[in-house]
Amino acid sequence: MAESSVSLSEVESSFQKFAMHGDTKATGKEMNGKNFAKLCKDCHIIDGKNVTTTDVDIVFSKVKAKSARVITFEQFKQALTEFAPKRFKGKSKEEALQQMYSLIAGKEPANVGVTKVAKAAAVDRLTDASKYTGSHKERFDDSGKGKGKAGREDVPDTSGYVSAYKGSGSYEEKVKEA
């Protein structure tokens, strides 16, 4: 194989980052199909013409072990070897593979637009607690902060007075007067 311009360790570190993406239990040694597809998309291996998402799924199935649901880094390199001539037509196998590696090296899973907050006038209007009516109004205080359990459930008054009694807490004074 020709001397590489991109080191395999850079490709492997990207492989590990994608392998661990979205999975707290992942070690980075194996990658599932979903993350493989994400890597192919984020690193622009999928170009929509020569390599499509279907190709990615087919190659993933081809390189993984029969019963396995994940691929190792070795199998990942094998998958790239499959993609290289399709993605870079007219290049030698080595050249194409090098370009595949350079697409991947140093990349990380992109989380573009994943946690953006929707800023629409409708959302602001619907989440403004001061405009709530009926029983929903009871669940928030004047500042718009939720009251928690007290706002959802009828908490029984265990003071010993009849509910809605205006002179609540005045018993002691009446007893003293007598």
Automatic annotation (TrEMBL):
<dbReference type="Pfam" id="PF05517">
    <property type="entry name" value="p25-alpha"/>
</dbReference>
<comment type="similarity">
    <text>Belongs to the TPPP family.</text>
</comment>
<feature type="domain" description="Cytochrome c">
    <location>
        <begin position="23"/>
        <end position="166"/>
    </location>
</feature>
<keyword id="KW-0479">Metal-binding</keyword>
<dbReference type="GO" id="GO:0020037">
    <property type="term" value="F:heme binding"/>
</dbReference>
<keyword id="KW-0349">Heme</keyword>
<keyword id="KW-0408">Iron</keyword>
<dbReference type="GO" id="GO:0032273">
    <property type="term" value="P:positive regulation of protein polymerization"/>
</dbReference>
<protein>
    <recommendedName>
        <fullName>Cytochrome c domain-containing protein</fullName>
    </recommendedName>
</protein>
<feature type="compositionally biased region" description="Basic and acidic residues">
    <location>
        <begin position="135"/>
        <end position="155"/>
    </location>
</feature>
<dbReference type="GO" id="GO:0009055">
    <property type="term" value="F:electron transfer activity"/>
</dbReference>
<dbReference type="InterPro" id="IPR011992">
    <property type="entry name" value="EF-hand-dom_pair"/>
</dbReference>
<dbReference type="GO" id="GO:0015631">
    <property type="term" value="F:tubulin binding"/>
</dbReference>
<dbReference type="GO" id="GO:0001578">
    <property type="term" value="P:microtubule bundle formation"/>
</dbReference>
<dbReference type="InterPro" id="IPR009056">
    <property type="entry name" value="Cyt_c-like_dom"/>
</dbReference>
<feature type="region of interest" description="Disordered">
    <location>
        <begin position="133"/>
        <end position="178"/>
    </location>
</feature>
<dbReference type="GO" id="GO:0005737">
    <property type="term" value="C:cytoplasm"/>
</dbReference>
<keyword id="KW-0963">Cytoplasm</keyword>
<dbReference type="GO" id="GO:0046872">
    <property type="term" value="F:metal ion binding"/>
</dbReference>
<dbReference type="GO" id="GO:0005874">
    <property type="term" value="C:microtubule"/>
</dbReference>
<dbReference type="InterPro" id="IPR008907">
    <property type="entry name" value="TPP/p25"/>
</dbReference>
<dbReference type="GO" id="GO:0046785">
    <property type="term" value="P:microtubule polymerization"/>
</dbReference>
